[in-house]
Automatic annotation (TrEMBL):
<feature type="transmembrane region" description="Helical">
    <location>
        <begin position="137"/>
        <end position="161"/>
    </location>
</feature>
<feature type="transmembrane region" description="Helical">
    <location>
        <begin position="228"/>
        <end position="249"/>
    </location>
</feature>
<dbReference type="InterPro" id="IPR001851">
    <property type="entry name" value="ABC_transp_permease"/>
</dbReference>
<keyword id="KW-1133">Transmembrane helix</keyword>
<feature type="transmembrane region" description="Helical">
    <location>
        <begin position="28"/>
        <end position="48"/>
    </location>
</feature>
<feature type="transmembrane region" description="Helical">
    <location>
        <begin position="82"/>
        <end position="100"/>
    </location>
</feature>
<feature type="transmembrane region" description="Helical">
    <location>
        <begin position="181"/>
        <end position="202"/>
    </location>
</feature>
<keyword id="KW-0472">Membrane</keyword>
<dbReference type="Pfam" id="PF02653">
    <property type="entry name" value="BPD_transp_2"/>
</dbReference>
<feature type="transmembrane region" description="Helical">
    <location>
        <begin position="54"/>
        <end position="75"/>
    </location>
</feature>
<keyword id="KW-1003">Cell membrane</keyword>
<feature type="transmembrane region" description="Helical">
    <location>
        <begin position="282"/>
        <end position="302"/>
    </location>
</feature>
<keyword id="KW-0812">Transmembrane</keyword>
<protein>
    <submittedName>
        <fullName>ABC transporter permease</fullName>
    </submittedName>
</protein>
<feature type="transmembrane region" description="Helical">
    <location>
        <begin position="106"/>
        <end position="130"/>
    </location>
</feature>
Length: 331
């Protein structure tokens, strides 16, 4: 059985060393922006620059970062997933259904909740790749379905994990003193995702599909199958995010999730992933997620009203998308 390699497209050839240098510069620019924002809040607020607040920022990055890592794969293919926010809430509810309502042990309930996220991703992939529904519409529909199911399955009430302290320890426990387990999990999945994206056939095909889907198909690669697989794989991160947020809160909140998709997508774009596909990295996505968390944390410490926090975040998203358009025009 022979393995067909992903084609080297004209776009990829044209990039070459220049494209790699440009990508590194974009990551450095994002990292420099993170340092500047962190320094700014450290100056304006004496409470910001502390170890405790630093850990709090990392802790708050876990959910957005997990969602962003998964959707990085989807966006690199040239797709989009608007269902990750409400999908996360549904997976959190399913975790409650499995562990609290059904009494399953953690070793079974947690993987089932994560796999449920993969199932949602699989459905998205089938709708996009096989039924040829535009990703925006397909995932928008899934967003509404997930939002409704989360409310139905939970009877519109939170599911508490009071009798499952081990579940809460998944996020808030401390294998390393003063470092929440959630932060360690984010670091681990970032490393795994980075290796998969840069060192495996999954990553090569992800980049190839995003760079030139038609050329990839003509080379003999089953693009539809791989797109379904990529969406399903990304869905696993949605499921994991559902576990992490419900473990952090100690409850599955069915109404939680709206707005997380925008922050996750913004993190991906801020980190240098192109909305047109074919370009992106996990390290850049993590930097983007940290920028959003630092902004949220700093604005809260400065007692900026939530309404203005939303305005500022919206402006950041606009700048990120406009920057992506400039990058695309210069490429």
């Amino acid at each position: 059985m022979t393995t067909v390699k992903a084609p080297v497209t004209e776009r990829q050839r044209a990039g070459g060393v220049t494209g790699a240098i440009r990508s590194r510069l974009q990551q450095l620019l994002a990292f420099a922006s993170l340092i500047v924002i962190y320094a700014f809040f450290s100056i304006v607020s004496p409470f910001f620059f502390s170890y405790g607040n630093f850990i709090a920022i990392l802790f708050s990055t876990v959910v957005i970062g997990t969602l962003a890592i998964g959707t990085t794969f989807v966006i690199i293919t040239g797709g989009i997933d608007l269902s990750i926010g409400t999908g996360m809430a549904l997976c959190a509810v399913m975790s409650g259904v499995f562990i609290v309502n059904s009494g399953l042990p953690l070793g079974i309930g947690v993987p089932l909740a994560i796999l449920f996220g993969g199932l949602m991703g699989l459905v998205n992939g089938i709708n996009v790749a096989l039924l040829k529904i535009p990703p925006f519409i397909a995932t928008l529909a899934m967003m509404l379905v997930a939002e409704g199911l989360a409310l139905v399955l939970s009877n519109s009430t939170p599911i508490y994990f009071s009798d499952s302290p081990g579940y809460i320890e998944i996020s808030a426990g401390n294998l390393i003193p003063n470092v929440p387990n959630a932060v360690l999990i984010l670091a681990a999945i970032a490393i795994i995702a980075g290796v998969l994206l840069t060192k495996t056939v999954l990553g090569r095909y992800t980049y190839s599909i995003g760079s030139n889907e038609e050329a990839t198909a003509l080379s003999g690669i089953d693009v539809r199958k791989w797109k379904v697989g990529i969406y399903a794989f990304a869905g696993l991160f949605t499921g994991l995010a559902g576990v992490m947020i419900s473990a952090r809160l100690g409850s599955a909140q069915p109404a939680t999730g709206m707005g997380y998709e925008l922050q996750a997508i913004a993190a991906v774009v801020i980190g240098g992933t192109s909305l047109s596909g074919g370009k992106g990295s996990i390290i850049g996505t993590l930097i983007g997620a940290l920028i959003i968390s630092v902004l949220n944390n700093g604005l809260q410490i400065m007692s900026i009203p939530q309404e203005w926090q939303n305005v500022i975040l919206g402006c950041v998203i606009l700048v990120a998308v406009y920057t992506d358009r400039i990058r695309k025009r210069e490429a």
